[in-house]
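Technical annex, item 7. During the second reporting period the consortium partners agreed on a shared format for inverse folding records so that results from different sites could be compared directly. Each record opens with the tokenized structure and is followed by the designed sequence. A conforming record, contributed by the partner at site C, is shown below for reference.
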């Protein structure tokens, strides 16, 4: 069990209502009893001063991360790779992001966030230099991407950790909403920017752009405070098992080779044993006794596997069917993320009109339809895909806050960092797995739905079938969410009621 106790938590920021720091009622998942009283940590005089710096680094890291995920087509063309192989630079990096979400959120309890950000910039620079210098070798490009992503993961994680640790509940809602908008904006900038960079400069230029991260160092040193960490335990073995599970599943979907199932299955069994028998595991079994948390993790894992599967496959679809280059395709994808950034910014207003269940249901329905409709119009105007992307990404933007609120609504504050870290890790492991199986479906040229969709060519039939498969996966997530929501309502789960109340208060 984590060493953090309520007494170890930082004091509320200035102006915080004392009642906001009281753990919520309900199931006290993974709450450790406070046996000793430790002196409270000293918080920054004005913790909000560091937020703009953290948000800027957060946005920059996301832009680079999403830019490279969109670079798969030009990398494949330049290095002579098939779609399955080139997807490794997105899938393995995604796993690093997922594991990093837990590693950095845990380290933030014992290492200064400022130090972690400095390390993240160093890793970005080293990885980018390796990738640029080895641009003619996919092995070196992949190595550079993995090291670079280890740095990006810190920047992507620490903003959320800082906000949840040092700002009041009321401020958290505002600044977490900013993170949702920043994510959508980053994809817009990353997709459109990398599309034009790849077309008119060269895809390797994105490695050089990453070096601009060093510009943030003076602001990090000036504004990000030196906390006085209480100390925490990093569960290296547990994280290793998670990495093994994620890698095994990802590589299975990459090649549908059952040999990868064996290490994943062994790792799953060991992980279950580990969290049941070790109190200082990355998460404990008490977390999974919390129905709302466990149920939402299942929904999140399934649903987010389609989130970048669609974005990953669309450049290949637009190139093969409509003859678009990556810059033209980026203008098809980009508007969706621009609109989604606005939806994320308006999440507080939307939450006043919709409770969590309504918002999540509408959002997943939007995602499903955004995948299903273009499957029947795959050879029609590119405008269809632009509209589809707007609906698709806006659905994810609408869903993020209420789904997270439902998942962690009754997790005590002293455990919220770990809970959110594991939640984000689930997202970031689901994403590369989705890219992997989408790439594999394209590589295998699956086209069983050609007749149903009216596709006139085998290529069009393949892409139409892939879109229908992704839509079916999203629909499965919707069905599961409805079932889980009814179970929570039937049991009178207080977490669901509280999550709805918090969401409607935004």
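Designed sequence (site C submission):
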């Amino acid at each position: 069990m984590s060493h953090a106790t309520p007494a170890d938590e930082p004091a509320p920021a200035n102006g915080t209502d004392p009642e906001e720091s009281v753990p919520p009622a309900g199931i006290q998942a993974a709450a450790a009893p406070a046996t000793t009283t430790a002196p409270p940590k000293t918080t920054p005089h004005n913790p909000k001063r560091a937020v703009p710096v953290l948000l800027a680094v957060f946005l920059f890291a996301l832009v680079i991360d999403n830019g490279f995920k969109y670079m798969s087509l030009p990398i494949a063309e330049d290095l002579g790779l098939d779609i399955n192989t080139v997807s490794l630079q997105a899938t393995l990096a995604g796993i690093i992001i997922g594991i990093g979400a837990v590693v950095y959120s845990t380290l933030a309890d014992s290492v200064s966030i400022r130090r972690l950000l400095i390390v993240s910039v160093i890793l970005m620079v080293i990885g980018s230099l390796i990738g640029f210098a080895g641009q003619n070798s996919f092995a070196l490009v992949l190595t550079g991407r993995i090291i670079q992503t280890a740095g990006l993961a810190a920047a992507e994680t620490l903003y959320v950790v800082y906000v949840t640790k040092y700002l009041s509940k009321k401020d958290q809602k505002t600044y977490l909403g900013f993170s949702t908008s920043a994510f959508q904006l980053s994809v817009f900038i990353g997709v459109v920017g990398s599309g034009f960079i790849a077309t008119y400069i060269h895809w390797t230029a994105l490695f050089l752009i990453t070096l601009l991260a060093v510009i943030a160092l003076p602001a990090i040193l000036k504004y990000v405070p030196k906390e006085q960490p209480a100390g925490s335990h990093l569960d290296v073995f547990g994280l290793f098992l998670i990495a093994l599970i994620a890698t095994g599943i990802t590589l299975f979907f990459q090649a549908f080779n059952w040999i990868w199932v064996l290490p994943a299955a062994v790792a799953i069994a060991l992980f279950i044993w580990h969290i049941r028998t070790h109190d200082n595991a990355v998460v404990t079994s008490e977390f999974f006794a919390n129905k709302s948390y466990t149920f939402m993790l299942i929904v999140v894992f399934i649903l987010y596997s389609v989130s970048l599967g669609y974005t990953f496959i669309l450049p290949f679809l637009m190139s093969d069917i409509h003859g678009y280059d990556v810059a033209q395709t980026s203008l098809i994808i980009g508007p969706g993320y621009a609109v989604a950034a606005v939806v994320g910014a308006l999440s507080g207003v939307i939450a006043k009109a919709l409770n969590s269940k309504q918002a999540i249901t509408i959002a997943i329905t939007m995602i499903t339809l955004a995948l299903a409709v273009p499957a029947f119009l795959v050879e029609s105007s590119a405008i269809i895909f632009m509209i589809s992307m707007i609906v698709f990404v806006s659905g994810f933007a609408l869903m993020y806050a209420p789904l997270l609120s439902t998942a962690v609504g009754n997790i005590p504050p002293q455990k919220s960092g770990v809970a959110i870290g594991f939640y984000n890790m689930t997202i970031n492991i689901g994403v590369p797995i989705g890219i992997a199986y989408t790439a594999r479906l394209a590589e295998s040229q699956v086209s069983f739905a050609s007749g149903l969709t009216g596709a006139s060519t085998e290529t069009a039939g393949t892409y139409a079938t892939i879109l229908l498969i992704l839509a079916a996966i999203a629909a499965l997530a919707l069905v599961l969410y409805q079932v889980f929501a009814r179970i929570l309502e039937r049991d009178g789960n207080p977490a669901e009621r509280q999550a709805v109340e918090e969401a409607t208060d935004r």
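The first helix runs from residue 51 to 69. Residues 1-44, 494-506 have pLDDT under 50 and may be disordered. All partners now use this format for quarterly exchanges.
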